[in-house]
Amino acid sequence: MTKYRSVALGCGSYLPEKVLTNDDLAKMVDTSDEWIRARTGIKRRHIAADHELTSDLALKAAREALGAAGLKGGDLDLIVMATSTPDQTFPATATVVQAALGMTGGFAFDLQAVCSGFVYAMAVADNFIKAGQVRRALVIGAETFSRILDWQDRSTCVLFGDGAGAVVLEAAEDTGSPDQPGIFSTHLHSDGRYHDCLYVDGGPGSTKTVGHLRMKGREVFKHAINNLAAVVEEALEANGMTADDIDWVVPHQANKRILDGTARKFSIPAEKVIITVEEHANTSAASIPLALSAAIKDGRIRKGDVLLMEAMGGGFTWGAVLMRW
Ligand code: ACO
Questions:
Q1: Ligand 1 site, residue 312, Cβ cutoff 6 A
Q2: What are the residue ranges in the chain where pLDDT is below 70?
Q3: Of all atoms in ligand 1, which is nearest to the CA of residue 312?
Q4: What architecture is the 4-173 domain classified under in CATH?
Q5: Would you kindly state where each structural domain of the chain is located, as residue ranges?
Q6: What dotted CATH number matches 182-324?
Q7: Which atom of ligand 1 is least distant from the CA of 154?
Q8: What pLDDT shows up at residue 68?
């Protein structure tokens, strides 16, 4: 039986035009540029315009990714879209993107794993490809977290931003060689005992409202570093690799201190970690493909590089993707 590997053909991203700086935030809540930078590394974030929906951001990133892959919407069999800020409760925002891309076959759905969403979506797409059920998949992470923030709560509103990123994957016959580009393995975890550490205090089935993001920051911080270090170890071990085999870590961009702490724990030099959190803040499921896209555009990530993506988010959920670009 043919074995398949998911090979990345292209990546794209989109950030809304409006930029909100830490100084802008200091005019809205009792905070300062100094506090935000020292605790998180964040300097600014992008915020969607009133008329811009998550699907609009996703579509722009998707078009760029398809352009980089030399494909059209009609060439896709699957869209998996990671988002916690869908346009509507249903139908899936992925179907809005599907229609706008002119993709009339195949199937499209949303997936919700908060900040781990992109890693989860890559794992799902990879498994459909490996099973031989899908030839080409578009994996999107897109968020408008500005819509679910409590703009009076300084402990959360300074941390997040809006944006979208996307990657096109295609099935190739797996030669079994570690030199072949594509996804080597994916690793997913969740532990629902911590669901009240990072959550939204509303929902269609409970309050019938959208709700606002709430977080126990210290708890999240503590678990993030331990869980991320463990899943990175797991991904390396599964492939008989060490930290030296990784060209680039493309992590979820929550907070510079979490990024530094995790890299230290598994002895990856800071120069190998792609960091965009200063410019984008935490864009949840969009943050990994946004960072990936930035590093491809500036020439750091090249074809053939070994990438490690890792993320942790509400649930708690966490996971990793190890691949050769
Ligand atoms: N500006 C100024 N002061 C603030 C702000 C702010 N924006 N926010 C909180 N403070 C104050 C608090 O009120 C508190 O004051 P007090 O001592 O007078 O009570 C003080 O700063 C310290 O508050 P802590 O919450 O203990 O601050 P901490 O050092 O833990 O830093 C932070 C907070 C940055 C949120 C940290 O806990 C963290 O990084 N947690 C991880 C959370 C995260 O990144 N979540 C993203 C989603 S999950 C994910 O993506 C992995």
A1: yes
A2: none
A3: 51
A4: 3-Layer(aba) Sandwich (3.40)
A5: 4-173, 182-324
A6: 3.40.47.10
A7: 7
A8: 98
